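Weekly sync, protein design subgroup
Attendees: M.S., D.O., the rotation student, P.L. (late)

Item 1: inverse folding check
M.S. brought a backbone from last month's batch and wanted to see whether the design step gives back something sensible before we order anything. D.O. pointed out we never logged the input encoding, so this time it goes straight into the notes. Structure tokens as presented (232 positions):
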């Protein structure tokens, strides 16, 4: 997961999430999705790889997902340009025996860090992943990725494993944490229902404020009143 500390670009990121498009990834999205992923590689300490990916590798992930039933979701701007993506696949260890145990990937474009889009994405994933046969979700997170850790805590996932200093990222050592939840846990489901309702209200209110502000900015300046002759 990469929802790392926002850069200065986040300050200018649009804040109205209600106009964004939630959809399945297409092969034509590959260039946009891998660019988002590569931002996490450049940041250091947030990506599981040391080298940039390629659009061809992203197309392979999308194609494999279609064959295996491992979805790749996209959050796109109103012009349909992807600005975040998520992927759920079976964990690498014994993928057939652990077919129902999902490994969640989540990446947000740098310009949208701090906008709330990561929470919107993960809520969408949790709503849909059971239809793909997953009953358990895990998130494998580098210990330095504080924003992703905050996200899974907010969603009431539990830390199931801590592997200290096992990640060698270009000579720097990082912990690897595994967080997870059972999708049929009643307490977790109740929490996510409350969380979803709360954030939906916040997003609607934010969108309404933005629309009001845009309307006030674009409203025409009223014409000066025409002087009327005095009545004798």
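Designed sequence read out in the meeting:
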């Amino acid at each position: 997961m990469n929802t790392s500390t926002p850069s200065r670009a986040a300050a200018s990121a649009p804040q109205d999430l209600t106009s964004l498009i939630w959809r399945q990834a297409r092969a034509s999205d590959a260039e946009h999705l891998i660019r988002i992923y590569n931002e996490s590689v450049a940041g250091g300490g947030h990506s599981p790889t040391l080298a940039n990916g390629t659009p061809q590798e992203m197309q392979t992930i999308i194609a494999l997902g279609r064959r295996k039933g491992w979805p790749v979701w996209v959050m796109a701007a109103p012009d349909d340009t992807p600005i975040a993506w998520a992927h759920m696949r079976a964990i690498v260890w014994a993928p057939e025996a652990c077919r129902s145990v999902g490994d969640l990937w989540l990446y947000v474009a740098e310009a949208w860090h701090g906008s709330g889009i990561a929470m919107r994405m993960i809520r969408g994933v949790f709503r849909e992943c059971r239809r793909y046969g997953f009953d358990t979700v895990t998130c494998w997170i580098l210990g330095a990725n504080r924003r992703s850790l905050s996200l899974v805590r907010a969603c009431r996932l539990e830390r199931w494993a801590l592997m200290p200093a096992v990640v060698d990222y270009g000579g720097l050592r990082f912990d690897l944490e595994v967080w997870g939840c059972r999708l049929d846990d009643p307490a977790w489901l109740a929490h996510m229902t409350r969380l979803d309702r709360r954030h939906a209200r916040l997003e609607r209110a934010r969108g309404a404020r933005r629309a009001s502000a845009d309307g006030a900015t674009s409203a025409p300046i009223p014409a000066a009143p025409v002087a009327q002759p005095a009545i004798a």
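Discussion: Helices lie at 30-43, 55-68, 117-128, 146-154, 186-218. The two ends are 79 Å apart (CA to CA).
Action: P.L. to compare against the previous round before Friday.
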